[in-house]
Please model this.
Amino acid sequence: MQHKTIESTKCFHCGDYCAGEPVVFDEKAFCCKGCSSVYQILNKSNLCEYYNIHDASGVKLPELQDQEKFGFLDNATIAAAYIVFSKPNQIAVKFYLPQIHCSSCIWLLENLQKVNEGIHFSTVHFPTKEVTVYFNPDAITIRAIAELLASIGYEPYITLDDGQGSKRQEKMVSRSAMVKIGIAGFCFANIMMLSFPEYLGLETITVDGLTANLFRYVNLLLALPVLLYSGSEFFINSWFSVKQRRLNIDAPIALALAVTFSRSVYEIISGTGGGYLDSMSGIIFFMLLGRSFQTKTFADLSFNRDFKSYFPVAVCLVDKNGTESYIPVQEVKIDDTIRIRSNEVIPVDGMHLLGKGEIDYSFVTGENEPTSVAIGDLVYAGGKQLNGSIDLLVVKPFSQSNFTRLWNNDAFKKTDKNVYSFTTVISNYFSLAVLTVAFSSFAYWYPSNIANAWQAMTAVLIVACPCALLITATFTEGFVLNIFSKHGLFLKNAQVLQTIATIDQVVFDKTGTLTYPHASSVEYSGEPISVNHLQIIASMAGQSLHPLSKAITHKIKVTPCHLEHIKEVAGAGIEAWENETHYKLGSSSFVGNESAVPVASEVWVSIDNKIYGKFIIQNILRAHVNRLIHELPYPVSVLSGDNNNAEHYLKQQLLRPISYHFNQSPQAKLAYIESLQLNGKEVMMVGDGLNDAGALSKSNVGIAVVDNTIQFSPASDAIMLSNQLPLLDQYIKAAKWSKNLIKTTFVISTLYNVVGLYFSVTAQMSPLVAAILMPSSTFTIVISTMLGAALIEKFCFKPIADLKNIHQ
Amino acid sequence: MIVIVFLLIISLLVASGFLIAFIWGSKTGQFDDHFTPANKILFDQTNQPTENK
Model:
């Protein structure tokens, strides 16, 4: 191996720019050891084709890899959850690999048998990012497969709340929806074809004793599966809505379908006409098409992740002899000793027995600074161990830990947001109007012509069914959802779109949402430090995993040197003795500055007991966020779990009076949202972490901000890519316009209805008129929503580059 | 005229053949993943195992 200094070289494996000196192997530059080790594995197995499909397609390895991380897969009961198929010499195991992103990934993951001979073959399912590995259980274990995947950058994501079952169920649902549409489309087209004699007025012609009546009966036969199978959801939904005494749009549709079908059956059997089976199946076909278009699912995103997905599946149990074994987290008992590895979330409350406890409680408190715990201290579930492994004595089982109890609290449970969708409201008025027209036309004709009375009434119900409204809403929302996801905002469902249009208050989380989660600005204030001293201070900071130390190392760009005598005092700081000099780096009290007010984001420096100065570490705002806050036409609040250090900086940057709330626990955030709602506000909450989860689910619209779609987000109504956050105002504007678009297209479809009603009320409704009106109104609606959505995209969305920065 | 009836039956039979193929395809998940199979065909295969499940 040789080292070369190449300025800002791209990593051959992952394509990132190498910070500092690249690692060179095989004359190729890598940004880190992890990337070069993946290359070495692939190179050895002749899999370098991987890099030819896509340049630099590799996935970066995480900094810290724990050898024992997948140890729990040795436990047969835990591993059984991942086995999808098993026979004596072949087992198939399925893992979720969120890193899958391109065709190179597929190629590599389907060539795993070249890396290890125990693997027979493997298949990738791209939309759900799952890989199924078929292997010989005598040659390789499940754990070894998981470790192999992790070593080439595809670490299986395994949590308690894996949702594997629910995912599969979702898939089954979408498959049956597809079959329903297929059957409806098939029958619709055939019925249309067989109705041609009807349209051309040939139905009375008899040739060789055969009449068009035969065609009518075939139509009836074809219409049965459409009504009973494809259209069944309208009847089921309306039955539920009647039971809950909340009329939804499906109820009037089901009524219209039932009336259309009964009248068609009557006409065919009595030989008086051909019925309206073509219109009926066409409407069902288009409504199902609209619904499936609107319920576009993002198979790789999860909107319902609760706190359990942050916990490990299994815990490492240590017995008296010090041997480790793994058990499912629910089976942990009081007085067990468990071992928590670094970066694992602590699943149960326990007493700290062994190791250096440095725990990040940001899930629980929102506070970003880690807490150090001494031996004998209580450690609470929900904290994340940062530095090496620790042993805990369990004091409360999983289900009773404070953390689990907190999240099981009703307030945190996702309640069905009680919003009357605006289409439902319109459809209720609409149905009322239709029923009135139907009954008055019946009353008008009844004295003179009973046959006409029935005909008029049923024709009104058939023609003016709110199907057009449903088609309008579903297609518009479908188009707008597509536009949104193209621009990096993924909505859970179409209902969210309608809710966004009504909000009048926006609440932001600070850390990780308004500010970058990791990048922080480090400023030094005090006496200047010489280069030699600075090198040692940077090296000291480099030894610690504390986020503040990391920020300082990142700021002072000097080559670290080796330190002989270094000591980290948990919760206070680091000290080192080098060249007969005593260096101290840490809190104000640690360096002996008693006069200073202890502030968490300040790191003081002292050399030979002389206080030099302090590093002030501050998170920095995401680019263009100040413009967003300035442009939002609603009251804005900022909530933060951190202390109020950043208040001054935020006030300086965000040029508008907004309300700030610091030191907010997850419950306090939730309570704040609740208090706004009690004042009649429709609140949008934008947050990123588990500590915002309560507020996100309480708010009318909760948006989780993620840096990439691989990242895990708390339960929310929408997931937004963080680089799109500055465009939030545009999304809200687009949501409002899409509501207007639905209204406009609805007016168009009402015009068609009025024409249809004229024919119905005057009892002149012929199958031909119905057959022309129905498709033409549907096509007009679909085309106008499509054009409208394109206009919305054109006028509401401006790329970030075109935004004027309103800095000062 | 009887030929029309004959044609009608034939056309419905042929069309239902396609419908059944579609139902079978979607029930067995052949439309679930549009990305992987489409890309797989483009990869140069060297020594692919002959094994199957």
